[in-house]
Design a protein that fits this description.
flat, single chain, 2 helices, 64 residues, 30% helix, two-stranded parallel sheet, alpha+beta
Length: 64
Amino acid sequence: MNHDSTILVCGAGPVGLTAALELASHGLRPRIIDSNDGPTDLSKALVVWRRTLKSIDGLVPFER
């Protein structure tokens, strides 16, 4: 498989960032774009489910 392509991820929320981390963990190069120009102080999530936390537990954006 050719990994020379950059994959566009639209949205820097929890789903977009998780997708980008997963793509990067497979040797792909994600490029993230978002309509906001920076972080927000407001959360749109009401709850984070246990299964969701378990599924993202292994995704780390940096070397440990």
